[in-house]
Design goal:
By secondary structure, this protein is an alpha+beta fold. It is built from 13 helices and 16 strands.
């Protein structure tokens, strides 16, 4: 056995166990209490009232704890608003503004619906009237519409067939019985060109213009083409002798002319001087704008002996038929000005008696094309400066005619033939 290091004491095992054994032996000698005796001293729970103080302490401890309420979670998507919700907000500025906006929108929608229904009714009526207009079969001589523009041939014929013999100014219209007024001749021949850029141009053809009929026939006045062969020969003459294609055709006689002017309430012409023509019955007593009724308007466009009173002296227009076509251009411009309002166009269609044949159209003019023409005429500002250069001539039978100067007229012919 080794010797322990200096200063270090190592306890002996027996020295530790001995005191512990002595303590346990001494404790074992004491009397131990009986556990059953201790439990018997506790109160019986069955005999204890529920409101015993020592029981209430536990219950109160639970009941006195603060209750924490869990907040309700709002819905992610708010419910849709209804008119009742807005009604509740009418007291606020925002609510009143929303209500006004809704009322305005409802009114606009209602007016739009009423307008569409009215427009539909008008279109149906106009289409029926358009379908009732007499048609002239001209498919063989009309040119197909091409790029550049559309030429409308407008013809006023002197037929009195549908005219009331008791109409105002009947003496000048029907004559005194010494003149032949039967048959049909052209008092007015105008070409209205609507260019693709929307501009409008008018070329008046004098009825005494001397041309080969049909383009290759015997020469005669251009109004003879209508008398001999109707619209077909007239269109063929204009195309064949002048090189101007005609795409659509419109014709009106004396009765239709009077109905038309009555329908627009008269046509206003500005007269620089008092004017009259005893042959046609024209009588304008004062200078300035004058609204011509139907019979005076007819006398104005037919006048070939147009006389102005200048400084108290009568002065006859020396231009003869050329002066007349210029007055017809002035009248046509004023008439289309009266028809610029769509309401006037509808009113005119309602007042015209299209069943008599006083107004005629070519068989190729569709309702859509007619509507497009009406739209084009709403801003009617025609260029009336296009003229054919002609000279007076006397032919073999002694008739006074107008011969065409083709070279001088070429710019006009080229424009209308595009």
């Amino acid at each position: 056995m080794g010797v322990p290091a200096a200063g270090r004491v190592t306890p002996n095992r027996s020295s530790l166990v001995a005191p512990l054994s002595l303590a346990m032996a001494a404790h074992s000698d004491r009397p131990q209490p009986d556990s059953s005796q201790r439990l018997a001293g506790l109160p019986d729970l069955a005999d204890e009232p529920l409101d015993a103080p020592w029981l209430q302490r536990g219950r109160l401890a639970v009941e006195e704890r603060p209750t924490v309420e869990t907040p309700a979670v709002e819905e992610a998507v708010p419910p849709r608003r209804t008119d009742d919700d807005d009604a509740g907000e009418q007291g606020s500025p925002v609510g009143r503004r929303r209500t006004r906006v809704r009322r305005v929108l409802r009114s606009v929608v209602l007016l739009a619906l009423v307008g569409l229904l009215a427009l539909g009714g008008v279109l149906i009526y106009v289409q029926r009237q358009f379908a009732s207009v007499e048609r002239v079969q001209l498919g063989g001589v009309l040119a197909p519409v091409a790029v550049g523009g559309t030429n409308y041939l407008i013809v006023g014929n002197d037929s009195r067939e549908n005219l009331d013999p008791n109409v105002d100014n009947a003496g000048a219209i029907f004559g005194d019985g010494t003149q032949e007024v039967g048959g049909q001749r052209t008092d007015t021949i105008q070409i209205l060109r609507i260019a693709d850029d929307g501009t409008q141009h008018i070329l008046a053809l004098p009825r005494d213009l001397y041309l080969p009929l049909g383009g290759d026939g015997a020469a005669n006045r251009i109004n003879a083409a209508f008398a001999f062969g109707g619209p077909e020969l007239l269109i063929a003459t204009i195309n064949g002798s002048l090189g101007i294609p005609i795409h659509h055709y419109a014709e009106i006689d004396f009765a239709g002319f009077i109905q038309l002017v009555d329908a627009v309430g008269g046509v206003t012409i500005d007269f620089p001087h008092p004017a009259y023509d005893r042959k046609s019955g024209l009588d304008v007593a004062s200078p300035g704008p004058a609204t011509l009724d139907s019979t005076q308007a007819l006398a104005f466009v037919r006048s070939r002996s147009y006389t102005e009173v200048i400084d108290g002296q009568p002065v006859v227009d020396p231009r003869g038929d050329l002066g007349r076509v210029k007055r017809q251009q002035v009248f046509l411009r004023s008439l289309f000005g009266e028809l610029s309002d769509p309401r006037s166009q509808v009113s005119v269609l309602g007042k015209l008696d299209v069943s008599t044949g006083s107004v005629k159209l070519d068989d190729r003019l569709s309702f859509g094309e007619a509507l497009n023409l009406a739209i084009e005429l709403r801003d009617f500002e025609p260029n009336n400066d296009w003229d054919l250069v002609v000279s007076n001539a006397t032919v073999a039978n002694g008739a006074q005619v107008l011969r065409l100067d083709t070279a001088a007229s070429q710019p006009t012919l080229d424009f209308f033939s595009r």
